[in-house]
Amino acid sequence: YAVVCANLVSNLLVGERKRILARLHAEGALIVAGILKTEFDHVQEAFETGGLRLTASRAQNEWRSGAFAWR
Prior knowledge:
By secondary structure, the protein is α+β, with helices and mostly antiparallel strands. The chain has three helices and four strands; from the N terminus they run βααβαββ.
């Protein structure tokens, strides 16, 4: 897919990381939302370890979202 949008709890998002990455096109973007600020670093690390880089992020109240692309 060119774009994958995921508004999932962090443990499910991290648990499904390999499936998500396998379906993301080489020029694609992953958008994650609804992640608690306290858990976002864990999600970021998991996807960066998988070959993505964080390209944008936004926070509001206790929530954080982010956009990732292939390195």
